[in-house]
Amino acid sequence: MSSSANDQTDPLRWHHDDAVTTVVLDRPRRRNALDSATVRALLHLALAPPEATAVFLLSAEGPHFCAGLDLAEHVALRRGPDDFFRLCRLWHSAFDALQQGGVPVVAALQGAVLGGGLELAASAHVRIADETAFFALPEGERGIFTGGGATVRVARIVGTDRMTEMMLTGRVIDAQQALRIGLVHEVAKEGTALVRARELARKISRNAHATNRAIVTALPRIAGMSHSDGLYTEALVAAHVQATGEVHERLEQFLQRKTVQRP
Ligand code: 1HE
């Protein structure tokens, strides 16, 4: 099954295969810069995933993942503070829906992952880069500020200190350094990020869906809790997942060696 939200000018398309819904940013001539239509389409897809979606695979057409905010649209619309505030809140809704909507997101990254592109990537749970990927927060150079959640999501990945330095200097971080600081989880050979990301997406799709949902919805919430509230919530989540029934079947299969589990 495949679709795009309207016609061939649509900035986003998706296709569904084996419980994995692949979402493709499709404005390579604009380096997949995020205009408001793209962000709205991401929000709709995340809020209402195509039927039988167990995992989203987030990818992009062309040599660059995403050049961030569509600066041409931004300038053309001459957005004032109110407009930009509303746009930022739209981005927050879309990326929150991706990160906390209950469906794991695996991202395949290549080339530029800049500004809002990094904010989008940071809303994915598993990030695979190829060797060409590079990362930066060039907002300072452009006279704007992050508005797609970087102060929360990117800062929590790399730390406020490092993000401050990235924003002040505009430092460009290559794939290997991104791996070292946790911006990505794996670096694949040039041109193979999507293949590797799809492999992982399929593997994740075979997990118990209740466990996957709990991982992506509970962990970010527990991260904001006190020690004792976090542990209490963990027990509630574990009890809820246990109650889905799949656990007994899966454990039985394991004990009878009907499934081969590889780490
Ligand atoms: C764009 C954009 C864009 C390219 N908005 N049109 N983001 C940035 O500051 C990143 C700006 N872009 C770049 O640094 C470079 O374009 C790239 C490193 C991504 C790619 O370089 P390159 O040499 O392959 O392409 P190019 O020639 O720079 O760009 C090709 C075309 O894409 C060109 O248009 P053309 O009409 O001349 O063909 C560019 O204008 C266009 N293009 N990037 C619009 N971003 C909610 S707040 C979020 C805040 C941010 O995201 S700030 C970061 C903004």
Describe the structure.
With 263 residues, the chain is of the alpha/beta class. The chain starts with a strand and ends in an 8-residue tail after the last helix. 40% of the residues are buried. β2 (12-17) and β3 form a beta hairpin. The chain is built from twelve helices and ten strands. 3-methylmercaptopropionate-CoA (MMPA-CoA) binds next to α2, α3, β6 and α5.
Question: Main traits of this protein?
Answer:
263 residues, seven-stranded mixed beta sheet, 12 helices, globular, binds 3-methylmercaptopropionate-CoA (MMPA-CoA)
What's the topology here?
Elements: E1 2-4, E2 12-17, E3 20-25, H1 36-47, E4 55-60, H2 71-76, H3 81-100, E5 105-109, E6 112-114, H4 116-122, E7 126-130, E8 134-136, H5 139-142, H6 153-158, H7 160-169, E9 173-174, H8 175-180, E10 186-188, H9 193-205, H10 209-223, H11 227-242, H12 246-255
Parallel strand pairs: 3-4, 4-5, 5-7, 6-8, 7-10
Antiparallel strand pairs: 1-2, 2-3, 8-9
Helix pairs in contact: 1-3, 10-11
The structure holds 3-methylmercaptopropionate-CoA (MMPA-CoA) (1HE).
